[in-house]
Structure formats: structure tokens, C-alpha cells
Amino acid sequence: MKKKIIAIILCAGEGIRLKKITKKIPKPLIKLKGLNNISILEHTINILINLGTFRIAIVKGHLGSKIDEVISSIKNKSSILKKKLVIVDSGNQYKLGPLYSFLSITKRKNLFRKKSIYMVIPGDTIFQFNLLNQIFGNVMNNFDLIQKFPLIFYRKILVSDLREQQVSKAISIADIEKKEFKSFLRGFNQYGLQDLSDSDIISQIIPVFIFSFGFINNVIDFEKKISVNTIREMINYMIKNGKEIIAIKIEKEINFYDIDYEVDLIRFEDFFYKKKEDNKSSDNSKNYCFEGI
């Protein structure tokens, strides 16, 4: 079954909220001390390799030659990686939005194949190993089910806990409906923390989507009829038109870190330093140096 699992890492966007950095490098190539001085992209690739992912496709767009250089360097580490890692050029499709970046894989016959399962992963999110490990395990355990239903993942979390993490971006919250022994997604929307109460317990979407070959063909058919540019908008539209998507709860308290603004980078590094220094008071004179600044 592992030979049918293909990870798609979306690295095509311009990262305009971090333009001071991303005018020189794509956001997934930002290196962080908290990741042992490797880039977000390489961190994700390392996890996927350790999980035994059969093939990893990196979708490039903005400053794609920089992605080429990094992937070429990684491939040179072993002959296995040369076969495992594939770069997909989205051309100008990425300018239309992440949905179109993702759909660029359908032009590659060696990637877009019947019975394959696709893990769609944002290239600018830092995942803990155990989180992707749980998701990968769910894919393995529900392989036949995924041929009929896409999977999304969510976690139950108290809004006050999110505030402590100082999340800067909008939160994607799932509307879940239980039917017999399964939970289904009724849709999901984005909210700012200012719109939520500390005591609210929300179902926060984890930004990893599991699609089958057949579902992606359905996406292509729907895309011709409507104008959307994100995977979230497409999923909501398909649900309204009768498509069912299974929602799986991640049980353990495991974090992921979306990187949208420079402050997100600083907060992640703060977390790293606090962990290393056993929660000692942080040094306000600390200087941060991210690639591109």
C-alpha cells in the first residue's frame, strides 16, 4: 500500500505576507534554528522519508529555481532519494491560487495514476513528526475507504490555548456531523481569534488533505463549472453538491505551526529557545536571522 501513497508538498506560492524574505527565496526554504538549521521544506521531506512515503512531489512556482537547487542537493545524498523526490512545475498556475498549484500534478502521468492516494501538504507549515505519523497511520488503516471518501483531520482545542500560542492567522474550524460510526465534514470556515471566546472548544482543521485519484478527477470536473482558488473553497462547494468527506480526530495534543508573517517565525524560535532553556526567561536582546532578511 505504501507504494500507492504520494505526498504532494505545495511550495509554489509567493508568500506575499513575508515579502521581505520571499522576494529572495520561497517561504518553504526559510531555515530555522528550531529545525536544526534546515528549511521548513527539508524538515517535512525528512519526516515523510522516515514514514516510508513512496513518492514525494514538490510543486514549485515562485522562484522555482531555488526549489530546484535544494531538491537537487537532497537527491545527491542517496540514490533512493533520486527516485523518491519529484519536482512538479506549476508554471503560472500558482498565480491562480493553491488549488491550481495542486492540480498541476494531474499533468504528470507518472504521478497521477489510478488507485493512488495523495497526501496534500502545505510547504510553509511546520509539522511535528508525531502528527504526520498519526495521519500516515490513518491513511494506511483506511486505504480502501479513501478510494470512496477523502479524509480531513482535526483536533479539539480550547481557544485560550491557541491564544497562548499567539496564533496570528485565521483559524480553520470544521463543522462535524456524526453518522453511525463515522464523522463527516459538513464544511469549514475561517475565523480570527478575536471572533472567538476563550472558553470555546473548536474543531481546528489540520492542513493535510487525503485525496484519491477519483476524487481529484471530480475536483477537475467541478473546477470547470465554478470560480474558486483554494482547496477549502473547493471542498465546501463539493460538500454542498453532495460529496461526502470523512473527518478524523487526532487524539493526542500535537502541534503544527503555520508560517504567514515574520512574527510567526519569531514565535516558533521563541518556542524552541524556551524548550532548550527549560522555560527560563527569554533574552530580549536575542537577534533572529532568517534566510532572506
Structure explained in plain terms:
- With 293 residues, the protein is α/β, with parallel strands linked by helices.
- It has eleven helices and 13 strands.
- The chain has helices spanning 19-22, 40-50, 64-75, 79-84, 98-103, 129-141, 143-146, 159-164, 213-223, 231-240, 262-276; strands spanning 5-11, 31-32, 38-39, 55-60, 85-89, 117-122, 125-127, 151-158, 171-179, 182-191, 201-212, 246-249, 256-258.
- The strands form four sheets. A seven-stranded mixed β-sheet has the order 5-4-1-6-11-8-12.
- β2 (31-32) and β3 form a beta hairpin.
- The model is unreliable at 278-293 (pLDDT under 50).
Radius of gyration from the CA trace? 19 Å
The CATH superfamily bears the name: Spore Coat Polysaccharide Biosynthesis Protein SpsA, Chain A
> What's the count of strands?
13
| Biggest sheet statistics | 7 strands, mixed
Query: Structural class of the helices, strands and pairings?
Result: alpha/beta
Name the CATH class. Alpha Beta
Low-confidence stretches: 278-293
CATH architecture annotation: Alpha-Beta Complex
Under CATH, the topology can be stated as: Spore Coat Polysaccharide Biosynthesis Protein SpsA, Chain A
Between the first and last Cα atoms, what is the distance in angstroms? 43 Å
Tally of separate helices: 11
Following the backbone from N to C, one meets helices and strands in this order, namely EHEEHEHHEHEEHHEHEEEHHEEH
Helical residue percent band:
25-40%
